[in-house]
Design goal:
With 207 residues, the chain is mainly alpha-helical. It is 84% helix and 0% strand. The model has no long low-confidence stretch (mean pLDDT 94).
Length: 207
């Protein structure tokens, strides 16, 4: 069966995502670029934006943060304004925010993450809200806004607990413990660490 160019582009993207998961970065990048060229040829800006975001993720996995930021911005430029307010915009802004913060631009990173959080909230996607909150907590903590960081982690924790998503709960509780210790709240820190260890044991018991 001969696939249409558009179907070939979709198949190549799926193959590249699998290669990215397997950390076969060179082959993954080559297939993403082939997929992107076919989507460009078809004039499919939506799927082209998704591939550009994928390539940004690949660069971020390699530690190539400047290239990741460039690709995420290209992805948003292709997505907007036609598909503004969609899950894809929230995801791309979340990724861009993390990359910017990792480059040391905490202000720009936080701005993107706050937009991502607001979009996930508007879309009724609480798990997306939680992811953005955790990322914001990391940025706030790095720039010394410990109260904002604690609030972000606490809000994320409430959402994660309601979904029974225990693995990120372990890390979030641990982060809250670190923040409490930094603020001299030793009893609170011990409480968070204890909860983190107990949750980690639950995760281990569940396999």
């Amino acid at each position: 069966i001969r696939l249409s160019p558009h179907s070939q582009a979709i198949a190549l993207r799926c193959q590249a995502l699998l290669e990215l998961l397997l950390e076969d970065y060179d082959r993954s990048q080559a297939d993403f670029l082939r997929s992107l060229a076919l989507f460009d040829q078809a004039g499919d800006d939506f799927n082209a934006s998704r591939v550009l975001n994928d390539i940004g993720t690949l660069h971020q996995a390699r530690g190539e943060l400047k290239q990741a930021v460039e690709r995420y911005r290209q992805a948003l430029a292709r997505l907007l304004p036609g598909w503004a307010g969609q899950t894809e915009e929230a995801m791309m802004r979340n990724n861009l925010g993390l990359a910017l913060a990792s480059l040391g631009d905490d202000r720009a990173g936080a701005a993107e993450l706050e937009q991502a959080r607001a979009l996930y909230d508007q879309l009724g996607q609480p798990q997306g809200v939680a992811r953005a909150q955790i990322n914001l907590g990391q940025v706030y903590r790095r720039r010394g806004d410990l109260a904002l960081a604690s609030a972000a982690y606490e809000q994320a924790l409430q959402v994660l607990a309601s979904f029974g998503d225990l693995r990120p709960v372990v890390d979030t509780l641990n982060s809250l413990g670190l923040l409490a210790r930094q603020q001299g709240q030793l009893d609170q820190a011990i409480e968070y660490y204890t909860q983190s260890l107990a949750t980690a044991q639950q995760v281990q018991d569940l396999g």
